[in-house]
């Protein structure tokens, strides 16, 4: 078995998940969505999948300790989604960075990462990352965006697709504004092809117009 996708595994027990994964060490794609009984045993099973290229753990009751364990992440991972998992924080990004995987796509929507996690992501995934989703990530600020996209030292090869929908409805002083679009216009006008800023209430027509005029036809 190379591909396994389970959605709505409400009664799928932790030990059962581990058993399935241990019997299929060559698995390349794993998606577990809404599996509330997942725990440490499942993590052990995932850590044994050294050939894994795609990992999706969405809407799961996974502890931050489990997500912050570098052994969870295969060094071959190219696509990771931890969306809608509230225990995902900067520690998970640090653990992911320690795997040194050639990450191309990352979905961190509705998680608790901050500017610190975003900067860690820039440092390790800058050369390979092509797609990043941050829907309703309320603790990432304009300054975090600036640090992420500034090409100092040539670390970051800017992606083509960015999704920040809902991120504008954040805490006071931490909302995306036209300033964030100015950073995008300055640092990725030649590479950005898709941008979603739905429900970012502080972004105006002026900001979108400026980005559009700078980004060109791509």
Automatic annotation (TrEMBL):
GO terms for cellular component: SCF ubiquitin ligase complex. The lineage of its organism: Eukaryota, Sar, Stramenopiles, Ochrophyta, Bolidophyceae. It comes from Triparma retinervis. This is Uncharacterized protein. Transmembrane segments: none annotated. InterPro entries: Leu-rich_rpt, Leu-rich_rpt_Cys-con_subtyp, LRR_dom_sf. GO terms for biological process: SCF-dependent proteasomal ubiquitin-dependent protein catabolic process.
